[in-house]
Amino acid sequence: MDRITSIEIFVRAVELGSFAAVAEERDISAQMVGKHIHGLETSLGVKLLAKSTRFQALTTAGEQFHLRCINILSELKAAQEDIYLDLNEPMGKLKIYCGVNLGISLLSPLLGKFIQQYPQLEIDLTLDNNPPDIYRDGYDLIFHDRIEGYEFLVGHQICSYDMVACATPEYLQQHGIPLEPKALEHHQCLRHTTAYHAHRWCFKNAAGDYFSPRISSRFTINSGQAMLAAAMEGTGITIQPYFQVQAALDSGELVQVLTDYQLPKIELFMLYKPSLRQTSRLTLLNDFLQRELNNQLNIKY
After folding, report:
1. Which of 3, 51, 127, 201 is the most buried (most CB within 10 A)?
2. pTM of the model
3. C-beta neighbour count of 179 within 10 angstroms
4. CA dist., res. 136 & res. 17, Å (int)
5. Residue, of 56 and 119, whose pLDDT is higher
6. How many CB atoms are located within 10 Å of the residue 82 CB?
């Protein structure tokens, strides 16, 4: 059997947790998956997986071999893609995960622009607010506002962007304009279901003092865009990325409040599998996003 194929199957069996999952992914039988792994074990003279009817686990030798295999596949992919990088022509597929709001507002248009430049590249973009399982779902790359919990991935901060609190003129005329963060306790503040500390918004004044009023809301939403749509109907005060509401602020449809205070910037990280390191797909996408985001209004590195 082809040794590289066997190594790929072994690595996926570890990542997916079963022969059946690998068999379905590769459209082969579970018995064939077993033959590939048994062939590796025979050639190495050690057991790689301790299997029973109820669980599958790496042996000590299997753990060491698995780490080496990841490096082998990473180097092989990088070596293959170096050719395409020299030709400035990335090939293959990138399966990408991103949150719904950021994906619709910012990332999807940029990826659409990027893929037009490289006709041999394919992008599969999933927008979801639920935490991704990069190995189970087969993601190559995720965009997230934190790196905690993803220490097994390689990544870096790709940009940060400003957040603003705003509402419609009609809402503010009816309920009053908050002049300090504590005043928000008496307003309807639209909350994001998945945001950290969603019941508290943190503001900082020019002196560096922090204020975290306890907000209340009868409307909690798991989508930033849906929250913005509700705010545009005069439902309450919302916190939004500045780049998403700039047009509405300029037209007067929304009014920024608490302008003497700052909200924490949101950091955006690009996280990817070690096997993608230095590949043409990742290198060119990273350079493209750095350039494009740098040109976006009020998005700074």
Report:
1. 201
2. 0.66
3. 10
4. 9
5. 119
6. 14
